[in-house]
Amino acid sequence: MSCVSFAKLTTLSPHWIAHNSFSPRRHGSSPLSATRRVSLPIRASSYSDELVQTAKTIASPGRGILAIDESNATCGKRLASIGLDNTEVNRQAYRQLLLTTPGLGEYISGSILFEETLYQSTTDGKKFVDCLREQKIVPGIKVDKGLVPLPGSNNESWCQGLDGLASRSAEYYKQGARFAKWRTVVSIPCGPSALAVKEAAWGLARYAAISQDNGLVPIVEPEILLDGDHPIERTLEVAEKVWSEVFFYLAQNNVLFEGILLKPSMVTPGAEHKEKASPETIAKHTLTMLRRRVPPAVPGIMFLSGGQSEVEATLNLNAMNQSPNPWHVSFSYARALQNSVLKTWQGRPENVEAAQKSLLVRAKANSLAQLGRYSAEGENEEARKGMFVKGYTY
């Protein structure tokens, strides 16, 4: 935040609060016994109450996030899998299918959109943002600009997009978005290097502070990739390190924890590890990491699926909700909600209703998992197929 914005906030309202002040040190006193007291301000923008309420709304019982924020290139890959060309008309048709599904709001509390989708309307002229609001689903927006090579690292990446983020976020808010998403990644086979972890944590913290200043609840997402043949204990070790750095820099940037959401990876073995872990083992290690690193002030943990099968992602989420947690433990799935939908739709208008019913089946399954009541009984083989892609990009 600039000095100008600091001055503006302090003169207009008590948005910056310091419980202590600077006092002169007594002559001869040591640093430990000095009366000089230093206190960092507690940052809270004029949107603070709204941020907290939005985060609570998204983290509401039995509901989670539908992530449809794939870039145009990635959406094109999805469409190509069912024989469709990557055109704006086809992308609009697919996203219209998803966002106009009757009854979706019973299981979905928020939807992350790509910039194109935020400004699009249905073929009947209704804004997609309004379609979501009618079902009490909070519109969100992907704000990062993607991954690029990180110089000086072990073949790792960093996430770009901070330049111009404040002005873009202000425009997204005007368009109706109320939360944001920024994805960066950490690769265990690449180390990860201390440089890559620090860069990921700092970038997430700056993004979160800028988002909150512009009325958007930031989803904090350092995805620890499934790539590798490492055991689950190694994933836990890395996850604890990453989240320790993330919360250190969130605090350094005076981010309001009550007004953020997290989108972590589940703690699993590497996708190429010789032994698969049970949902109970994954739940145990994931919750261990969260309890050691995430303050209870954070309202919601919205897990990504990261290439797990639809059923795997739901079973693991269900296992984590078998006992009370300090946070709302839920989902923010893309492929694990959309895979069956795409295969049912096949780009044909006559299949839209069946595809929407398929989306409701998956959304309801994950709603039950958020409540700890899911059973995989009756799930078909297609929903059990893994979707891991080595080196996957969005």
Automatic annotation (TrEMBL):
Gene3D superfamilies: Aldolase class I
Top-level taxon of origin: Eukaryota
Keywords: Chloroplast, Glycolysis, Lyase, Plastid, Schiff base
Subcellular location: Plastid, Chloroplast
Associated pathway: Carbohydrate degradation; glycolysis; D-glyceraldehyde 3-phosphate and glycerone phosphate from D-glucose: step 4/4
Pfam families xrefs: Glycolytic
Primary subcellular site in the record, as a coarse category: plastid
Keyword set includes ATP-binding: no
GO biological process: glycolytic process
The keyword ATP-binding appears for this protein: no
Entry's EC annotation: 4.1.2.13
Gene Ontology MF terms in the entry: fructose-bisphosphate aldolase activity
Signal peptide: none
Family stated for the protein in its record: Belongs to the class I fructose-bisphosphate aldolase family.
PANTHER family: FRUCTOSE-BISPHOSPHATE ALDOLASE
Protein name, as recorded: Fructose-bisphosphate aldolase
